[in-house]
Amino acid sequence: MSDPGNYAGSTDRSIGQLFASATAEMSALVHDEIALAKAEVRQDVKRGVIGSVAFIVAGVLILFSLPVLSFAAAYWIHTSGLGLAWCFGIVGLAFILLAVLLALIAIAKFKKVKPPEKSIASAKQTAAVLQGVKPHPRPAVTARVIGRTQGSTLSDKAIENRPVQDKAASVARSST
């Protein structure tokens, strides 16, 4: 028979068993939450793809219907007694006027677009705070410590006595 201390309803379990049971249940809960989130995201993505495909198909159908509707409008105007060429010219001019009107609306909307002032101000504030930070000083290492042999010329002696800095330290010092 199995140990009665392993059941969830048992009152004879030790603290270790209770802790192990709690962590196992917490782990199962986290896994279930992750599975639920994945299912919801998968469902939303599926809906988004179906909606996008339907929107694209609707756009293609509208695009294909424009020539047909243009011919219909031209022939409808032709029933008033105008010549067919004039009718097609009127429909073409109507499309040009509509395009110019939409372009003017688009230009007006583009002129109202402004840079993200709050983000720029926040970035400038962050840069100002970071410029005030002083890097931790690093000890300078001379060329002799690295193992360079002493030279006899004046330039070799100047190089030997110059401290060697790593790139990060020189960049940090140049920014302060």
Feature tags:
176 residues; mainly alpha; 2 strands; 72% helix; flat; two-stranded antiparallel ribbon
Give an overview of the whole structure.
This protein is an all-alpha fold and 176 residues long. It has helices spanning 15-78, 84-111, 117-131, 143-146, 154-161, 167-174; strands at 141-142, 163-164. The protein has a two-stranded antiparallel sheet with strand order 1-2. Helix 1 runs antiparallel to helix 2 (84-111). The model has no long low-confidence stretch (mean pLDDT 78).
Number-wise, the strands total 2
Task: Enumerate how many helices there are, as a single number.
Answer: 6
Query: Helical residue percent?
Result: over 70%
Structural class: mainly alpha
Q: If you compute it from the alpha carbons, what radius of gyration comes out, rounded to the nearest whole angstrom?
A: 38 Å
The largest sheet, given as strand count, sense and whether it forms a barrel, is:
2 strands, antiparallel
Reading side by side through the largest sheet, how are the strands ordered? 1-2
Counting copies of identical and different chains, the oligomeric state is single chain
Contiguous low-pLDDT stretches (5 residues minimum) are none
Order of helices and strands: HHHEHHEH
Query: How would you state the average pLDDT, rounded?
Result: 78
- Principal-axes geometry comes out as flat
Question: What is the CA–CA distance across the termini?
Answer: 74 Å
β-sheet strand percentage: under 5%
